[in-house]
Design brief:
This protein is α/β, with parallel strands linked by helices. The chain is 29% helix and 29% strand. The protein has a single domain, classed as Vaccinia Virus protein VP39 (Rossmann fold, 3-Layer(aba) Sandwich). The protein has an eight-stranded mixed sheet with strand order 5-4-3-6-7-9-8-10, sandwiched between helices. The relative contact order is 0.14.
């Protein structure tokens, strides 16, 4: 089941495990916190964009009992790990899709209750880019932009559906402007203070909602 350099990590919830490869990209606490930020019912469906090794979608399904979860990941190696993690955990309602997220609604449909995304935080020319392309893609907007993510989230969501994402505070203005551009109103902003560098922000948006923002610190 495990390929060279891969390991099986305990997610410490419901006896779930996940396959990771430290030579590619391993999830951080941001992903876990974003997962815990999601509100979802047992009859709802979730789409996890930029799903990586699948930690958010797998944990979110276990914690919310969501009806169906789609993990959308471009990188073949990460998608492969996700699929094997899904099989190892015997998850029948989690599906991995190895494809670009742009226009993924044409493949899986729309009308979803929840879309979540842990995106690349940095613009393509922002800061030092890793020599490892697999890591660079996860951290910089090389294969997808923040606008493309928000645009696709809007197409996937039903009216009243929720969009959840995480980023650094320096991208907050960009994120809010794009959400409004594509009809997703920012409703909750949670700020996680950092002792190193920019603070982390988590945002919940609602498609078609009226203005009105709550801030959590």
């Amino acid at each position: 089941m495990l390929k060279p350099n891969e390991r099986l990590d305990d997610l410490q919830f419901n006896n779930l495990f996940i396959i990771q490869n430290p030579n590619l990209y391993c999830f951080t606490s941001d992903a876990v916190e974003l997962c815990n930020f999601i509100k979802c019912g047992a009859k709802d469906r979730i789409v996890d964009l930029c799903s990586g090794s699948g930690v958010i979608g797998i944990l979110a399904q276990a914690k919310t009992k969501a009806k169906q979860v789609y993990l959308v990941e471009l990188q073949e190696e990460l998608a492969s790990m996700s699929k094997r993690s899904v099989n190892y955990n015997k998850l029948t309602n989690v599906e991995v899709i190895n494809a670009p997220l742009q226009n993924i609604h044409k493949q899986i449909g729309d009308g979803f209750e929840v879309v979540v995304c842990n995106p690349p935080y940095k613009i393509n020319n922002g800061g030092e880019i890793s020599e490892k392309r697999e890591i660079a893609i996860c951290k910089h907007e090389i294969t997808v932009t923040l606008e493309e993510i928000v645009c696709e989230a809007s197409k996937l969501l039903k009216f009243g559906g929720k969009f959840y994402t995480v980023n650094k505070e320096e991208r907050l203005t960009d994120l809010f402007c794009l959400m409004r551009k594509y009809g997703i109103e920012p409703k909750v902003l949670k700020i996680r203070k950092s002792t190193k560098g920019a603070n982390i922000i988590l945002v919940e948006g609602k498609k078609g909602a009226k203005s009105g923002l709550k801030i959590q610190v």
